[in-house]
Structure formats: C-alpha cells, structure tokens
Write a structure and sequence with these properties.
Elements (H helix, E strand, L loop, with lengths): L4 H13 L13 E8 L4 E7 L6 E5 L2 E2 L12 E5 L3 E13 L6 E6 L7 E8 L9 E3 L4 E4 L4 E14 L3 H16 L8
Antiparallel strand pairs: 1-2, 1-7, 3-4, 3-5, 5-6, 6-11, 7-10, 8-11, 9-10
Amino acid sequence: MRLSPAALLTAVAASCFFQPTPSRAGLLGTTVTLNYNYQTPARTTDSLLVTAGVEVTCTGGGSGNANVCEMLTAANQYIDVGDLSIGYSYVGSQPGGFNVEEPNGMTFLNLDPGGPITDVSLATGIAGLDMSRVSFTGSSVSIDMHGLSLGFSNSFTLTLTAAPEPGTLAILATGIAAMISFRRRPASV
C-alpha cells in the first residue's frame, strides 16, 4: 500500500518532532572525566560538568578548583570544555612550561558530543605542539604536553568532530525517502 503525499508528509513530520529521546549534539550539560598523568604512577582525576564557562582554574602552588591543579602548579592556567572543543590556556607573569618527564599530559574521557568522535583538529601557538601529540577514540582525547614551553602566554584548542546519532540518520533517510516518493507521476488523460 502506498501512502498519499499528505500521509507521508505527516509521518515524516511526526518522526522529526516526536523522538523518543531528545537528540543532543555537543558536550554542554554532560560530565567529562579529566585525568592528568605525570610520571608513573602520579595521576589526578576530575569530573567536570561542562557549562558555558571555564571548568578549571588553577591559581598556582597547587591551588585551584580541581584536583588537576595539584599538577598544574603555575598560576593562571585554565581548562575550558566547550560544546565541541577542549581548550587550555596559560597566562603568567613569567614563562611557563611542562617538565620533560613522560608521561606528562591530559586525557579527557567520557566525551559524548552526540555521537562517536571521528576527528580532532588542533589550533595552538605552543611551539612543538602538533597533531602527533594528540590521540583520540570515539569517546576520549589525549594530549601529550611533556617538554613544551609556554612563554608568558599560550594556549591550545582541540575541536571535535562527531558522527551523527543514529536517530539523526533515520530522520535524514526518512526525508530522502519522502522526496523520492513525491516524484512527479504522469498526468492521466
């Protein structure tokens, strides 16, 4: 049985507006786990609720609003997890940097930007920091910072690309099917 164009359009509209679970794209409102790994076995772990503001502020000497500040001991270091990005910045009164010991870096876990992570891009002014120091899975991103110098001010931003949720793909497929079914029929004589 073939649906009339009006019935098909109604079905497509219903599938778009009456999803059983709301579709979400981005990290805002989720909880991300941050591990800072420094030498073996030193590690800190933080659970960060992703909001519109900066999640971590390290004020120096091991102080700040997160466990990672025990490792990021220089003042004025920030970690900001955005909707589809992860940023780090340092603004100091003296040059900063990361020790040469390995491991020395951050791993962000439980990342769910609305689908599996399929790509990560890097924007930075930190000399020596490039994509060879970044690795990722469908739900995590790691960045190796060992031996990098920061100068008086430096930062990086990782931008995440995620595959669409299966529900989004289903809506797209339904829309394409509707367009195909509306192809012009020959006029009756």
